[in-house]
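Translate structure to sequence.
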């Protein structure tokens, strides 16, 4: 079976793919998936603290949500930008859900917050690098660090996405940078 691009010459641009996918063309959506999956997976992996299984689940959830909401894409920005924000919302929504569940089960402290991703101490004896240092951050600090320093969001955008105050976002970024610096200095 030929790919969407082979079947529809001249419609390789993102706008044409989105328009076709909006009309139900699953091959066009598959092409969009293939173009964007690696970047979205990287985002999810960082937001999940390096938990590959959770990142893969959230990647799939983000693309399912994108397929369901494709008709809400107005074209005010590039499709990749829209998909990126939608994916951040999927990850943050999942985080809030896991945190509510953990809060009901146990008192909230930093150790519980770190365990919300299911992370275990797999780092013993391994060389600490930047990605590992980021993955060890408490979730709120990691989320702000990834969105601000890696993905380029502003504190106002982070506030809108996460529901935290701009001042809290700035404080979490400061905290995250200090914790990463401490981890790298070890």
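Result:
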């Amino acid at each position: 079976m030929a790919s969407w691009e082979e079947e529809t010459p001249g419609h390789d641009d993102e706008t044409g793919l989105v328009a076709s996918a909006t009309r139900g063309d699953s091959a066009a959506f598959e092409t969009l998936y293939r173009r964007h999956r690696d970047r979205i997976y990287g985002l999810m992996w960082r937001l999940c603290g390096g938990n590959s299984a959770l990142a893969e689940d959230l990647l799939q959830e983000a693309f399912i949500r994108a397929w369901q909401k494709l008709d809400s894409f107005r074209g005010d920005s590039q499709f990749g930008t829209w998909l990126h924000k939608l994916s951040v919302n999927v990850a943050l929504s999942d985080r809030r859900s896991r945190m509510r569940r953990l809060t009901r089960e146990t008192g909230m402290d930093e150790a519980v917050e770190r365990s919300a991703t299911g992370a275990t101490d797999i780092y013993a004896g391994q060389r600490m690098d930047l990605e590992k240092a980021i993955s060890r951050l408490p979730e709120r600090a990691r989320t702000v660090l990834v969105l601000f320093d890696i993905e380029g969001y502003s504190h106002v955008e982070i506030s809108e996405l996460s529901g935290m105050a701009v001042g809290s976002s700035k404080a979490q970024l400061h905290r995250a940078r200090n914790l990463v610096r401490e981890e790298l200095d070890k």
